[in-house]
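Following up on my earlier thread - several people asked me to post the actual chain instead of describing it. Fair enough. Here it is, all 369 residues.
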Amino acid sequence: MAFDRLLNVARKEFSDHITSRRFIIILALFLVISAVSIHDGIENYNNSLESYNEQLQHMADANIEGPYSGWMPEKPSIMYVFMSMMSYMSALGGILALAIGFDLVSKEKESRSLKTLLSHPIYRDEIINGKVLGGVGALGFAMGLALALAVAMLLIFSIVPTLDEFAAILIFGAASLGFLLAYFAIALTMSTVASESGNALIYTLVIFAIVTSLLPMFGMMAADAFAGDPPEAPNTEITRSYTSEGGYTVTSSRSVVVSSSGSNQPEIDPAWREYEEEMRAYVEKRQLISDVSNILSPQMNYYRVAMAVTNPQISMMLSSYMYGTATQEDPGGLADALGRVWMNIAALIVFPAVFFAATYVKFMRMDIR
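Reply from S.P.:
Thanks for posting it. Predicted structure:
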């Protein structure tokens, strides 16, 4: 494989993409909706910042003392602005990626231009790899324009990101690009498999619906089926008995027993302890089944990664709820937030890589006559 020939193919594919009417129309719609979502996000951010300043002023005027004297309201982050952009990205961005890739190979098979192209001193691997690089470049171009538009709107509204926030914006853009590449890889694979562009589009839309909607739904159904019914809580009645030492024992439906010896240390009822262990095992089993199906859905992976970047607090609460762990007060920095979703990040990388590999193998073995 010659690198110069590969770049020539990639350059041609990239030029064809960004000059095609279909790409320009979808890109324009994509940028308009992104601008609207960013504007709404900026308005919500300004409202949250105003509420934050009012709370600070109220605390300063009230001179709060006691256990709440050290409490401080959470300052809103400008990454909240990108939360609304995330929802539009998962919908319209996927359509843009599908539109780029569904006829990349099939249209050349229909027009028989692929056979003519291979008659020149160029190899199959250079063609398919060039098509992949050209499509990736076009999607990166679209994503770069969307991020540039978002940053420009922030500066217009006098919101200047810090270095950490700018790094978070870049990571959000990288996660969004990985999401777009997942659907572009699906479309390119179906374009290579199908003999006609119409069939390729149908196959692509079917897989798009499966990985977007049916897989998460199937995961929930499978979790209900294989995990079974949740364990039942111990049916304990509230009783109280006094002792000769002046202490007392309380047993309630929460199964907390206060020692009668005067000790302040509570003792957990064994029945309730067993129930908590069974419930924890049940939640872990159910979540494992759900995670297996969700990890195959680019939509779910992108949602988890983007949420970790744009709102680490909500992401941490969501992870604690799903896995039954205690919620920490401090969500940590950007690295901590990404560490909680490392499996989803890996899935966004592996998913398109698998489809690109399948496309490469199919194209190299394809009979072109």
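Confidence is low (pLDDT under 50) at residues 66-71, 237-261. That should answer part of your original question.
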